[in-house]
Structure formats: structure tokens, C-alpha cells
Amino acid sequence: MAGGAAGEDRVQAVCSEENGWLFCGVYDGFNGRDAADFLAGTLYENIGYNLFLLECKINQQINEKNVQHSSGGRTTKSKLSLDIESLDNKLKPNLSLNSTEECSTESFRLGVLNCLTSALVQAENDFMYRVEQEMDDRPDLVSVGSCVLTVLLHGMDLYVMNLGDSRAVLATSSLIKDDPPRPIQLTETHTLDTEEEYRRILADHPDDPSPVTGGRVKGKLKLTRAFGVGYLKKVMFNFFRQTGLTTEELMNIPVGRRRKYHDDVTVIVIILGNKQRTSTASTSI
């Protein structure tokens, strides 16, 4: 389930017969659609690449096991094996497979979860780089973010990953006639309403006297985990704190009004043909 302002959310579904999986993604954007758009355009591709590396590593280990048996215990790594290890430094799912039948073991499942996590981390790093490159023309990007909910169905295994308050709910049926399905929530909600998340925020910011203000993280978000939202994660993106400009002030500037903040920042808001609000920050002359 996801909800937000019109046009800020994205839903993605991919059924791959070649790979034998079904992927679904829900990206619940806020403060703009850029983060959700970025996820829809990159996350699945990142996941596919990481799963490819995982498959290569499994095949590599199986082949080396067979070579070791046929050579009396001695084996030499091929150039392909070394290349895969070089590409796979970030994954390291700690697989230990003895045969192809063991590809559905717990170690393989942990490897898939590592793939999902690595893909999301890479997507956010790439998004933050884009924000950094476009900050001069799009200062509003530092506040843009998205909740993330992905589901990957492979064989009889269901893998779920989430950030924020988007939830995956499984409907279970019973053998009793006319017995309605029972919902089971598969994901945790990452908001300050969750006691564990509240304590984590306080523990992660021991030097901050007020990480939670007015029931929100830094007085801004009720979410405790989200994709993007650079100004809450990196000092260099904290444009609002440096200029005294808040998200609400930025979005409420009247159209065509030129406002000056401090000595070196000017904000002008214009309306494009599609009536979408945009903002520009520049050095005043």
C-alpha cells in the first residue's frame, strides 16, 4: 500500500520467464516525483545485475568443486573466477554450495537478500550524486525522497524489502468454507510511531540534543527510513539550514516573486507549461 500527492508515486511490475521470477516495486514519493522516477528507472536493473553476479558466483563454486574432485583435491582459479571475485566484492553473500540442488538453501536466500540491499544502496548513491550535480539549478532535490517496497517471487520463495511506511500484506486463506482471508503484514513500518525506530534514531545521534522535534525527525519527517532526502543525511545538502529556507517556504513562494535569503541566495519560482512548480536558487548580483 502506498499513498502520496498526485503524480509522485510509481509502481513497477516485471515478469521474467527467462529468469523465472516476478518483481514488483512500489515507490511512494514525497516532496516531488524525482526519487520515485529514479527508482523506477534504475532499481530493477541494479537488482538484475546483482542477481547475475550471484548466479555467476554459484556456478563458479560448483565448477571449482567439480574440478577439485576430478584433480584429486587440487584446483586453480581461472581468469573468469578472478574477474567474478573482483566484480563481487560488494556482495559477498557467503555461499557454500555443494551441488545445484542447494541453490534453494538458506545461504542462497541470504545471497538474494544481499542482492536487493546492494541494489538499493547503489541506487541511492547514484541518486545522491545526481542531486549534488543539479543542486545549483534544483535545490529542491535535496528534500525529495521516496518510500520503497519491493517484492521478488522466485520459485516458492518470496523476498520483501522496504523503507518507510509502505507495507506488504499477505492474504492467507484457510480450508474452511466461507472463511475470509486473513491479512499478515510482512514488513515493518519505519516511522516514529514504532518504538524500536524511535529508540534507534536517538541512539544513532548521540551528539544531537534534539534529533526528534515535534514528533518528527529534525522536525521534518515522521519517517525514520527513506530513499533520498539528502538534506537529512548529508551536511553538504543541508541547503535549508544554511539559508534559513524551509521546504514549506520554498513551495509557498508566490509565482513570479523574487525573494532574497541572506546575502547570497535568491529564489525565483516559475510555472511551466504543465503547471508544475519549479524553483531556482542563484547567487544574487
UniProtKB/TrEMBL annotation:
This is protein-serine/threonine phosphatase. Belongs to the PP2C family. The lineage of its organism: Eukaryota, Viridiplantae, Streptophyta, Embryophyta, Tracheophyta. It catalyses: O-phospho-L-threonyl-[protein] + H2O = L-threonyl-[protein] + phosphate; O-phospho-L-seryl-[protein] + H2O = L-seryl-[protein] + phosphate. It comes from the Eukaryota. Its cofactor is Mn(2+). One of its GO terms (molecular function) is metal ion binding. Its EC number is 3.1.3.16.
